[in-house]
Amino acid sequence: MRRKQGDLIPLEIEILEAAITLEKGGVRAFHGYSIAQHIQNVADRRTLTAHGTLYRALHRLDRAKLVESFWEDPAAALEEGRPRRRMYRITALAAVALVRARALSRGTSGERSPEGSLETP
Amino acid sequence: MTPVRIAAALARAWVRLYTRPVEPEFRAIRREEISSDLWEHEQASARRGERPLVTAAHILWRVGIGAFDDLRWSLESRPPSRRASPREGRIDMSQSVRSARVSVVLGFTGAAMAILMFVVTPMLMSRFAAAGVPLPLPTRLVLAVFALLKSYWWVWVPAVALLLWTRFVPPSTARLRHDGADGAAQLGRIKPAAVVGVVVLIAGMTAALFMPMLDIIRAGR
After folding, report:
1. Interface probe, candidates B10, B55, B62, B76, chain A, greatest A C-beta count within 10 A
2. Which of B45, B113, B201, B202 has minimal Cβ neighbours within 10 Å of its Cβ?
3. Model ipTM?
4. pLDDT for B77-90, tens place per residue?
5. pLDDT tens-digit series, residues B150-175
6. CB A65: neighbour CB atoms within 10 A?
7. For residue B69, what is the nearest residue in chain A, using CA coordinates?
C-alpha cells in the first residue's frame, strides 16, 4: 500500500530520532555514514543501513524540509585528505513530524513501540 | 588493489550507472555523498581492525540491499522532461522485457560458443586424432572458424565489449525515451527469427563438430 503524503517510514523516524540524540550530545549536523553508524549502534544491528535505502530516506526528509542539507567546508575535508561530506541538520518541522508519527504509531498499534517506530503503512 | 578498494570501485560504478539519468544537481550530490560514505566506511573499518574481506563484503552488501531504493530514487529524481508518463512507463517496461530477452539470447549464444570453442572442440579433436578418422568438410569449416576466432581475438573481443557497452550502458540522453533512438530499444526489437537463427547456427556447429563421431562409431562396429 502506498503511504500517505507526510507519513514517515520507520527508517525516517530512526534517522530523525538519531539526529535528535546527536543534537542533544552537541552534534548539530551529521553526515550519511555517521547517522548509519549511530542507527546501527542504537538498534544493535550487525550491518549498516544500505546506501540506497539511507540516502533515499535522507533525500525524502530533505524534500519534506524535515532536514536541511549542505556541503561542509571544503577546507576541512582537504585538511583531513578525504572527500567532503554532505551534512544534514534537522529542522524545527522534524520534531513536529516525529510527534505526529509517534501518535500515529500509537493509534495504529494501540501502544507505542519501544523505538517509537511506525508499522509499515 | 585491495578487496575494499575493489568493492568501493564497484559501488562507485553502480552509483555512476543509476545516477546517469537523474538531474545533474542530484547526480553530483549522490556521487560525492557515496564517495564520502565509502571513504568513511573504509576508515572506520580499518580503525576497528576489521579484515579487508569483511569490509569489502559489507560494502557490497550495502550496495546490493539498497539497489532497489537506488533505482526508485533514480526514477524519482529524473528531470520532468525525462520522467515517463504512465503510458510511456508501460512502453518502457515492455522495452525492458524485450531487452531482458535479448540479454538472455546474447548470453546463451556467448556461453554456447565458448563451450563449443574451448571445451568441446579440444576434447573431440583428441578423440578424432586417436581414432585417425578423416574430418569432413563441415567439421573442418567449423574448426577453421574457431581457429580464426582464436587467432584474431584482438579484433572481436573489443567489438563484443563495445557491443555490450552500448547494450548495457545506453547513452544517457536516450534512456527511458521511446523515440527509437535508444540503443537498448533497437536491440530490443529482436525478431523471433533471430532467436531461431542463433539456435540453428549453434546446433549446426555442434552437429558439424560431432559429425566424425559417426565414422568412429561405424568403424567401431
Report:
1. B62
2. B201
3. 0.83
4. 888 766 655 555 55
5. 788 887 788 777 776 766 555 544 44
6. 12
7. A52
